[in-house]
Structures are given as C-alpha cells and as structure tokens.
Amino acid sequence: MKPLPLPIRALSLKALPPKGRLALRWVGYVAAYLTVLVLFFYLTFPFEQLKRRIITAYAGTLSSPANGHLEIDDLSWSWAFPGVVAHGVRMVSIEPATTSDSEAKTKVITLERLAARFSPLMWLFGTNEVSFSATGMGGDVNGSFSSSSKGREYTVELHDVSPGQLPMIAQTIGLPLAGTVNGEVQLVLPEGKAAMAQGDVSFTMDNLEIGDGKAKIRNTLALPTAQVGKLELKASITSGQLKLDLLKAAGPDLALEGEGKVRLNDKLQQSTADLVVSFGFTDRYRMKSDVTKALLGEPGSAVPSLFDMDPTLKRAKRPDGSYNFLMTGTLDRLHFIPTTQSVGSQRNAPTSPAATRKTPSPSKSKRPRSLRPASGAADAG
Questions:
Q1: Phi, psi torsion values for 312, nearest 5 degrees
Q2: Which tens digits make up the pLDDT trace of 118-129?
Q3: What is the residue-wise DSSP string for 17-65?
Q4: I want to staple 161 with a disulfide (CB 3.0 to 4.6 A). Which of 34, 87, 139, 261 is the partner?
Q5: pTM here?
Q6: How far is the C-alpha of 77 from the C-alpha of 136, rounded, in Å?
Q7: Whether 262 contacts 272, CB under 8 Å
Q8: Helix H segments across the chain?
C-alpha cells in the first residue's frame, strides 16, 4: 500500500503527542455536546408559552384590554441564532363607539414577518439587547431595543411604509392615506421612565395623498383625492416632552403646518398633546370638481360652502381661507378645538387649559445620550 504524503501523515492523530490527542478528544466532546444542546433547544423550545407571554406583555401596554389585542400565527427559531421569527403578526386596535347609534371601529396592522435576535455579548456587559426587522405595512421596519440597570433605549427605522398603516396618523386624519413614510425614532428612557425621556423623531412622507373619492366626510360627501406631496416632521424629546420642531407640507392641493408639544406617558396612548395645526386647500383643488366646489366653495365666491355651514369648521376658518385647530387630550382621545391662533403666533386667546401653557422657544435638537456600555462591544453580537 502506497504511504500517505508527508503533510497528511503529519495531521493524523498518531502523529500527535499523547497530550495533543487528549486535548483534541476533549474538544470533540465539547463540540458534540454543544451541537446536541442547540439541537435540543431547537426541537423542544416552548414556543406556545413564549407566544402567550408576548401577547400578555403587549396587552399590558394598552390603556384597556378592550382597546385591542395581539395575534401571532406562528413563532419559531430564526437562523440568526439566538433569535426567533414570527409570521402573521396582527396588532388589532378597537376604537369604541362615540355615540349610541355609532359602531366601534377596528383597525388591524399586519406584519407578514417579524424577526428578533438577542445579543449574548451585550448580555455579558449587563445589557439585554434585541434587534428586530419586520416586513409589513407596505414596507420594512428595523430597529433595536436595549434594557439595563440605567434604563431603556429604543431605535426604530421606517422604510417605505404606508401612512395609512400607521395607527395614530390614520386614526387622527380619519380618511384613507396613500404614499410612503421614511424616518427614524431614537428614544432613551433613563431609569425606564417616560418623564425623563430624551430623543429625536424625524419622518418624511413622500407622494402623500388624502382621501380616495369614496370615504365620506362627516358621513355626507366623499372627498376627492387631495395631493399633499411631501410632508416633513421633526421633533425633539427632552425631559419627557416631545416638541414639534417642524410639521409642514405645501402640496398642489393642500398646505399644512403645525407646532406644539406632547407630554409623554409610560403608556404611549395616554400621552397628552397640546398642538396647533393649520391647513388649507388650494384654488386648484377647490375647482377640481363639482364636489370640491360645493364642499369648499369657489375662489372669490360669496356663496357659503358646505364647510362654512358646519359650526365647528366655520369657527376654525381664518380670513386667508385656512382652518386652525388646537389638538388637545390624550393621543387615543384627541379633541379638535377651533382657534384664532395661527402656527408660530403667541397664544393670547387660549380655549383650553392645556393651551394656557407657553410653548418654549425653538432650540437645536440634541441626539439622545445612549445608555449602552462605552466599550466597542455595542456593535458586536
């Protein structure tokens, strides 16, 4: 039999010294043990119990169990170990009926796929960090969450998400929305308290359209699609208060701007708003169809429009044709109050207790201070 080449003979176990063979044997034992252990976790992990725990934790973030619930079709291991992936995630929100003759409204946000991965290396430094990515709402959502003895930190990025799928935006406007949303939220909660929150919010909505020609305003007439174009939103968060630094759009059919603040609560829906929003329709949109002429009135016409016949809208209308409202109350129960105040002016005629508080002067936004360890381990794992 022809002997093996020298390099191969040098790699054989017989060529190793006794201590080397012993060490290699123990390495094999450990590798085999870890392989069996990982396989055991993959096959026997209690995903049903984990699913119930996630659903229960989500319910704890709601102001009331009657306001909604979470549904998950399937939960299993992710190839990005150690991580999990969920399919068919549905966040169901229920808006109670406001009057005896109205019905409760149900809104469902669907994520086709949601993957999350835990960072073992950050855990060694005393920080529980989870990164996640989701496909749904017409686009993608990525981000991370970390928790330590110092507090909690959140980062969320939206990529080409449909504005009509964002719950608070869709609920506030109350009409179908089309377009794409891109942006980022950075939030730091020292000691885990919303009252100490720091952060930044930045969103851009491109090709934004409001209405679809079918949805009716106040159950009367359907509003033809209004092209808003690009809408920008920027806000800074300091000491638990979100200050709206920029909210502006100047589209071919509608112009909008706003300012104000939101006092954050540990339950986001219970955060209290104190905002001023002004919007107005362009002459092009007023002349778009017979419906817009009837709703908004023709430019320069003395004939009252249907909007002007509504007492609330009539009080909100300004001499330049725009409509100004105060938005006050909790985020899940916003109240729209007509106001004489325009965006950027001093509040000299408050119409609600929240409006008596002065809005702080604009200041340059600072990035939130991270709670993560100062070492380079934050990018590992």
A1: -65, -50
A2: 888 888 888 889
A3: -HHHHHHHHHHHHHHHHHHHHHHHHHHH--HHHHHHHHHHHHHHTSS-G
A4: 139
A5: 0.72
A6: 20
A7: yes
A8: 6-11, 18-44, 47-60, 120-124, 167-173, 283-286, 290-296, 306-309, 311-316
